[in-house]
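Journal club side-thread
Mid-discussion, someone asked how the predicted structure for our own chain would compare to the paper's figures. Pasting it here so we can look after the session.
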Amino acid sequence: MAQDARVRGYHHVTFCVGSAQEDYDFHVKALGLRLGKKTVLFDGQEPIYHLYYGNGSGDEGTLLTSFPMSWRPRGQRGSGQVTSITLSAPAGSLSFWKQRLTNHGYHTEYIERFGERRVVFDHPAGIEYEIMESVSSEPSPWTGAGVDGEVAIRSIGAVTVSARDIPEFDAFLKDGMGFAQIASDGPHYRYAIDDGTSGKILEVLHEPEMPQGTWTFAQGVVHHIAFDMGDRQTQQNLKLHLEGLGFTDVSEPKDRNYFTSVYFRTPAGVLFEAAVTNEGGWLKDETLDSLGDKILLPPWLESERGNIIPRLEPIVAEPAILAD
């Protein structure tokens, strides 16, 4: 793996959900994240929200982004999909999160994997979430939803992918992406970038008999995992590196207004993205204090605002904070 094409960690994870209000309540009112950007899906012709949740400034690696589409059916769980999104929180915070999520009406349980205890629960759309503890204090958390900074969620800690074939995916992760396998636990394999700290971990669940899962936009499906490349040259280097390995379906760079994306399917079937935050990032059209207040459109869709906005579900943004 070329050093000038290495990923730095996670940028964001994007998934399809049902109701926009339900999604907001889960991420903001229960998990205590900030709604940092309200915009729309740039692909296709149907007006669909694209909602971004993360820490106070929307740092790379903290971002969970959703496409609410309550009119579409649930997707089929299967191989080639993300099976769980694991968030990191400070050491000693799991009991707080188990109690808080229970108070908000979510079923929770403890599990252990790779010698780590985690709290497991589901998004209302059926996407599995976990919270694991991390010694890292970075990045700085958002504390505007009644969650103290000493327990607040820090970032995406890890993502788990279901794969039917391990050797082929293993070779791709190592040769194509610069990961190293650092541990195994039954059918679970852990891969890491650099030091393997929170935010630099990918977990693979070997399910050789699992049928292929849904690839299209559908409720309950994680659409893609985006990795942070740092700059456009590194992004281009990765694209050329993957194409040189024979993965010629790597997309051309796509302008996502706040970042630039290159997409590619992996041998496991899951869709990966190499992302680079554009100049100005989330602050190109809002101030830090006003992030997420308005529905924003890219310049090329602004002329359609009158047709797009009325077709989007209203979101009631008052935080309903329960005692923990």
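Post-session note: The helical segments are 20-30, 94-103, 166-177, 232-244, 305-308.
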